[in-house]
């Protein structure tokens, strides 16, 4: 189900309507839940962490669309997006996590990250499992071949099989987090 909330109809252009007539629209469609690990490729298109819209679920997805197209052209399923200073931000349509030494890392919200529903559920599941979680500022070298996973409400928790064509290890910790999230009350 997709819900869209807008200010309502108005004149052409960028100015908001003189009188707001908020409009809520809903659409629904069935999709099969994706399964199995995915392949990531680092996109040249950057996530604009300085934009006030970077932390909003909005319809302005051009950067994400371009990043995903780059990833597909590189033979990957999804794009890893860096922010304007070269830090890991997110995937084109997912939050990013990695594990190292029984600890989980994810980009800090200031990196231009959407505070996704499943992101919050993963952090809560980690706390419930006694797994430390750090929200960090990290360049791609900090991942350094660590197990990774991505999350969003449509795909759940999905391990990353490879990053930029290099295989990443599977992780029992990632599997435990995925199991905990799938059992958590919604």
Describe the model:
There is one protein chain. With 186 residues, the protein is α/β, with parallel strands linked by helices. It has a single domain, classed as Alpha-Beta Barrel (D-amino Acid Aminotransferase, Chain A, domain 2). Helices cover 20% and strands 29% of the residues. It contains three helices and eleven strands; from the N terminus they run βββαββββαββββα. The strands form two sheets. Strands 3, 4, 5, 6, 7, 8, 9, 10 and 11 form a nine-stranded mixed sheet that branches. The protein has a two-stranded antiparallel sheet with strand order 1-2. A hairpin with a 2-residue loop joins β6 and β7. α2 crosses α3. The longest helix has 13 residues. The radius of gyration is 17 Å and the shape is globular. The mean pLDDT is 89.
Give the CA-based shape: globular
Count up the domains.
Answer: 1
Instruction: Name the poorly predicted regions.
Output: none
Name the beta content range.
25-35%
Compressed to H and E, one letter per element, the order equals EEEHEEEEHEEEEH
Question: How would a textbook summarize the main sheet?
Answer: 9 strands, mixed
Estimated helix fraction: 10-25%
Radius of gyration, in angstroms, nearest whole number: 17 Å
CATH A-level architecture: Alpha-Beta Barrel
């Amino acid at each position: 189900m997709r819900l869209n909330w807008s200010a309502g109809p108005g004149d052409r252009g960028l100015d908001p309507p003189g009188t707001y007539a908020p409009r809520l629209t809903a659409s629904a469609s069935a999709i099969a839940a994706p399964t199995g690990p995915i392949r990531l490729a680092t996109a040249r298109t950057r996530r604009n962490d300085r934009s006030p819209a970077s932390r909003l679920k909005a319809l302005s997805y051009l950067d994400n669309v371009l990043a995903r197209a780059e990833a597909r052209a590189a033979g990957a399923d999804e794009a890893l997006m860096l922010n304007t200073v070269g830090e890991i931000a997110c995937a084109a349509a997912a939050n990013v996590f990695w594990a190292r030494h029984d600890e989980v890392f994810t980009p800090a919200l200031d990196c231009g990250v959407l505070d996704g529903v499943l992101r919050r559920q993963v952090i809560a599941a980690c706390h419930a499992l006694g797994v430390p979680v750090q929200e960090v500022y990290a360049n791609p070298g900090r991942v350094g071949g660590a197990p990774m996973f991505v999350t969003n409400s449509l795909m759940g928790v999905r391990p990353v099989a490879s990053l930029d064509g290099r295989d990443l290890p599977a992780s029992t910790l990632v599997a435990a987090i995925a199991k905990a999230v799938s059992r958590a009350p919604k």
